[in-house]
Amino acid sequence: MTETLPPGKLPPELLASLLASIESDPSVVVGPGIGRDAAVVRFADRLLVLKTDPITLATDEIGWYAAHVNANDIACMGATPRWMLVTTLLPEHDTTSALVERIFAGLREGCDAVGVRLVGGHTEITAGLDRPIMVGLMAGEAELEQLVDPSSAGAGDTIILARGIAIEGTAILAREMAETLAGQVDQAIIENASRLLHDPGLSVVPAARILRDALGPQLHALHDPTEGGLATGLRELGAATGLGLAVDGDAIPIYPETQALCDALGLDPLGLIASGALLAVVAPEGVSTALAALHEAGIPAAAIGRLTADPHEATLTTNGTTAPLPSFPVDEIARFFAEQNDDPAAH
Fold it and tell me: Mean pLDDT for each consecutive 10-residue tract of the chain (347 residues)?
């Protein structure tokens, strides 16, 4: 009997085998690959950067989410987000005009925030859904010298984390599980956690642009950790660069609200969806410049590890003890919600 796959991203081994069979053409500068945030193709005298990403976990402000997460991936290639198309699938029995208007307003707000124009899409009411699902397609522009190419990374490069973890997951938990948390976490912490969605927010576009402009060729890779949390984002970064990882767990900035909610619900912050954070791979001589540029812009950042020559290495050192970097085939928030649905006491 064939084993069914759990919710979340495909296992990297399966995805890699599928991507290996895809043919390319001379116009493709960056094609599909694990840890690659977007595709890049030559278009006239410019580079066109393309990305598609769905929103499936969050029902609140889904349009706003879609604009930001797609723009983040465009920015991680060193490009400027420009245009967006959206497919919106709405549940058959729960869709009202007010819901559609609210989703569209959030989408416009998100596009305006990242400087993107909504140029098309498709919307329908779909049988079999229990919540709205939105899939965004975004395009951006870049010049060749602006492109951030992970293949330029080398062993000894420093891994920097801008902001902390886990903004998106913490905000979702605070909004979706407020009643459950009320008896375990101080109300002020829950309210602060909910506000993380907008302050500091999900967009890493400004941070990516700051690093691109400050570092030039000393910036070797950018990646925004999303589903599967920081740990998965780090593994994806290793796959994209073809190198290993040695991570300093004590240096990872974790929002106190994240730690409080994870402690209450039995979740690991390293596996919690982490949109709003940005990973950067920087040449050793550029680290001080990178940190100074981010701090000058009011963006907290820390060096949390380095790339290593062994592509199979992925370690996490905490309190002097080194262990394998944890793996999260299913995001912690998805695992939690699935367990809630399976628990009769949770209904």
Answer: 80 88 88 83 90 80 92 96 97 93 95 97 95 96 91 97 96 92 94 94 96 96 95 95 97 98 97 97 98 98 98 97 96 90 44
DSSP β-bridge partners for residue 28: 41
- Domains held by the chain: number: 2
Statement to judge: residues 158 and 234 lie in one domain = yes
Q: Which domain holds residue 293?
A: 150-346
**How much is the pLDDT for 194?**
95
End residue of a domain, out of 93, 118, 146: 146
Separation of alpha carbons 206 and 111, rounded Å: 14
Structure confidence at residue 345 (pLDDT): 36
Residues linked to residue 43 through DSSP beta bridges, in sequence order: 46
Task: List the one residue out of 232, 319, 214 whose CA is nearest residue 275.
Answer: 232
Q: Is residue 321 part of a domain?
A: yes
For 2, residues 6+ apart whose C-beta sits below 8 A from its C-beta are none
**How distant, in Å, are the alpha carbons of 154, 215, 302, 341 from that of 46?**
27, 21, 34, 48
Q: Are residues 307 and 195 in the same domain?
A: yes
In a domain, 6, yes or no: no
What is the model's pLDDT at position 342?
54
Those residues whose C-beta lies under 8 Å from the C-beta of residue 51, and which sit 6 or more positions away, are: 37, 38, 39, 70, 73, 74, 136, 137, 138, 139, 140
Going from the C-alpha of 101 to that of each of 86, 96, 108, 111, 177, the distances in angstroms are 15, 9, 11, 15, 25
> Cβ distance 293 to 214 under 8 Å?
yes
CATH number at residue 175: 3.90.650.10
Distance CA 265, CA 339 (A): 11
Size of the chain, expressed as the number of residues it contains: 347
Does 3 reside within a domain?
Answer: no
- Regarding whether 331 and 211 lie in a shared domain, the answer is yes
For residues 2 and 14, the answer to whether their CB atoms sit within 8 Å is: no
